[in-house]
Structure formats: C-alpha cells, structure tokens
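User: Assemble these into one structure.

Assistant: Restating your components, then the assembled model:
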Amino acid sequence: MFNNEGDFKNIVDRLNIDHKANPAHREKLRRQILLEFDKSSKQSMPRIITFKTIGRTIMKSKITKLAAAAMIVISVFIGIYQFGGSIENAAFAAVVEKLHNAHTMTYSIVTQTNIESMPTVRVDMAFKEPGYMRITTIDGYITVIDWAQNKGISILPQRKQFIDFEASNYQHDPAQDPFVVIENLRALPSRADEVLGEKEIDGRLLQGFRVTEEYVVNTIWLDPDTGELARVEMEFPDAPGMSVIMTDFQFNVQLDDLLFSITPPEDYTRLEVQADVSKVTEQDLIEYLRSWSTWAKDGTFPPTFNLVSLPKVAMEMEKQGKFGQGETPAQQRKADAMLMYRGIMFAAQLPAESNWRYAGENVIYGDADTPIFWYRPEGSTTYRVIYGDLSVKDVAPEDLPKKN
Amino acid sequence: MAKIVEQTENDGLVLRARTNADALGQLYDLYYEQIFRFCVHRLFNKEIAEDVTSTVFLEVARNIRTFAGRSEQDFRNWLYAIAANQANAYIRKASRRKKLLAEAATLMMASGTDNLANSSELDWPMLYAAILRLRPEHQTIVTLRFFENMEFDQIGRIINTRPATVRVTLHRILKQLRNHLQMVLNGEK
C-alpha cells in the first residue's frame, strides 16, 4: 500500500503505458480541425463585433471612400456604447458618486488598424454636466449633443456647414453614463488577469494591468501615485489589428459652455443630411439598398447580406472595378457611412423570429417584380416584402417568394 | 487574482490562430502528442483516447476565434481544461467505466505490473477502479499530477483553483484512495 505521494508516484512509474500516437489519426484529425476552423468563420458573430469587422474591412475597399468617415462613426459608437459595465458594489457606487461630482471630463480616443489605407483616427471627447457631450475629430469636425434636450449638431468648419439632428429615440442607460463608463475602466485592474508592472509611457511612469473580457482585451495603465486612469488600450480578438487607445484623461477642467452650444454659428449653412442616432427603421434599409445600387456601376443591389462575407465581397467588387469611380466629398462620405451603418444595423437587429431573408443578388434597381428582402415585423401575421424597385408590400406567409 | 504570465515565442502563434488556419495547425502540431498522452493516461485505451483527443481539438477549432487568452500558457491551460472535461464526460457513463476497467486489467497483464507497491494483493485494476470512484475533477488531478508530472500551480491554472487547494485536495484524494483500497483488501467491499 502507498503512504504518500512518492509511493503513489512509484506505482504509476512502474506502469508501462503505451501512449505512442497513431500518425494516421493525427493527420486525419489535423485535416478535420482545419475544416472545422474554416466552417466556424462562416458562422455569424455577435453583432457589435460583426459591425467592427465589417467596418474595418469595408473601409479598406469601396469603400476606401467611406474609410475615414466610417472610422469616425465607429469611434463615436465605441465611445457611446462600448464601455458600459455593471456597477458591482456599494463602494464602487460611492466612487462613482464621487466621480459624478466632477463636472467635466475630457479624454481622447485613437482608433487604428493595421490596414495601410486606413488612417488612424483621433477623436477628442469632452463631457460636461448635466448631459453635454462634444466630439472633435482631428480634421476639425465637431459634434455636440445635449442629452437634456435630446438634440445635437455636427459642425463642419472647413465648409462652414452644419447638420442638426434629434436624438430623442436614444435609449438612456445609466450604465452607459460617460462618467460611469470611465470609472468602470478605472476599476478594471481589481480583476486583472495579468499584472504588467511599471512602464514609462509618454514620459510618465505608469502601472499596467491586463483585463480580458468577452470581446475585448483591455490594458489599463494607472498613475501609481494617484490611482487615476492614465491610458486604456483595447484590442478586439475578432478584429485583429484594430485597437482603440484612450489617453489624456482630465477631470474638472474648466470647459466653457460655448463649447457645448448646439446653436449653429451664424454664417454657417444647414446640410440636409440625417445623421441621428434614433432607432433604425425599414426606411434605413431601403436607403442603404438604394445607395448601394448607385455605388455599383451595374445598378445591382448588394450581393449578400451575410454580415461576415459582405466585406470580402465588397473588396472583390472594388478590385474588379464594379464600383463607380470619382471623388466623393468628405461630408457625403460621412453620410454614406452613417447610411450604410443604419441599413446594415436594421437587418442585424431583426430577431430570428422575423425570418428575414435577402434575395437581392444580381437584381438591378428598378425590377418591380422581384422581391429582394422580406421579414415579419414583431407581432405581425404578414411579412413586409421589399421589391427591386424598393416598393414595399404586406404579404401573407403563404404568398412569400419561394426563392431561398 | 493577478498573476505574472510567462512569455513564450509561441504567444504570437496563439493570437494568430484565432484567425489563421496555418497558425492553428502549428498549435495542433505542438500539442497533439501531449493531449493524446493525457487522454491515454486518463482513459487507458488508445482508441478511446483518439476519440476524445479528436473531440478536444474540434472544440478548439470551433471556439478559438473567441478564445480570450493571449499567451501560450493561456492556450495550454484552456486545452487541458477541455481535455479534462471531455475525458470526464466520457468516464461518467457507467458502461464506459466497465470497459475502462477491462482495459486496465489488460494493461496490467501486458506490462507485468501485477504486484504493485510490493503488496501481495494490490494490483493496477484495483487501483484504477478506486481512482474511477473518485469525483471526475479529482481523477483529473491524479492524472495531471502523477501521469503528466505537473506542478501544483500548473494544475491549479488548468482546473481554475489555487495551487494550495490542489495540494490539499490531492492529500485528501490519496487518503480516500488508501482507505478504500484497504477496505477492498480486507474484504469489506
């Protein structure tokens, strides 16, 4: 009988176990796993990540025209939506309360990819109580949102134009409060899975922590003297090469109310472009389909609505010269990016029960007889069917197109 | 709990494997033998070990795109955790236990280890039967410690518990095994 670990180990060591692998199995399994890996790439990913991937790749092609604008959209949406988290305990809530006593907050977000044609985009964020938000891009675009009035304005100084918009359908979520979001980031090191030690960054000695979450790997750098957040780096496993870096955090600095004014400058003209963050609708989808058919030289609709393969398809089309050429004004690019985003998001947000289907491949805009998209709205017994001329009809399930 | 993670030249391979089939293939080549050996040590049947190894790597292929780890160490821990779970899932079927016991007896005869630990009664099938009575998680600890020769901290990372807990648990496992075997040898079971 064994009395301790050593005795037990001796018993095990006396076993003459054959664990020589079978090369045939090894090779067969190798082929199987690579096949499985390939298959997994074709399955849909969570929506927010899908959008990031789409955004990253789309921007490389057609869509180079949309590049800078779409990155701005992504940065802004990341800024607004991405960093929320749960408030975990009362102590933390107290810290948040304290942070709320800070009346202003500023920081910068730098979004970059490893794609050559993709510019690195820097966005400066500023927040001021109660509920003002200002986003400034490096090329001078300014967006101000007044959440109290649910109104916003984008100002284009180079063109002396502005876009005003309503944000009334935006769903306010306390966990997405920018001050809470930043405090969540500051508190992340308490559940770090790696301690990175100290490192000098931009002339400051900072203490690093790596925190892995479901869709993002955060590297948080704190000032060891004050415990304050100094730098946040985010990488997204599903969008390799893309990173978001947040720096230059400042609290309670003096920010003039004029910075958050949603009154357009006197000599600026209004640009009639919808760029709001309200709920996406069927009309957004229709506008996206219409726009794509104008981008494509042959007037066809997008070949696919598969959110994963769409970027690849778009790049291929670009290589084959299937998109119209010519310079697009910067503001139009921004509008296109928003329009594309909203159209895609409409489809992406449809629940599985809607049984939505896209059949627009090779269909040319104007084909009134061919259904290209259909879905069942929540609670409806009939389907909404969009045809090639972008007309829409309500159709009973038994009359739905049979095309897959 | 924060930990310092050792860096290896294959960390980059792990990151690339999320999106790159060649990188995944290289990781497979690095770890196939280890996982197969673990499965053999856990199941004592090469055919079954091949099946379970297949399940492990197919699960890796399906999920690596969302794998959040950043280092080879993370990957290795994840891989062994999957292997341990798959082996446990296999063993949980009572009918399979009988087959495994029969295999253990065959192994004993093939390797001439019928007189283990200098005891006139204790043999490998008896010991293996006792191991199979343990909770699956405890069986995993026995295999990782005595067959894979892993340190407590490495086992802890795989089964997601502290090294000190592994150490204490193993101590209790051995006591439990010893008591059970003593009763068997005494004819009480």
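The first helix of chain B runs from residue 11 to 16.
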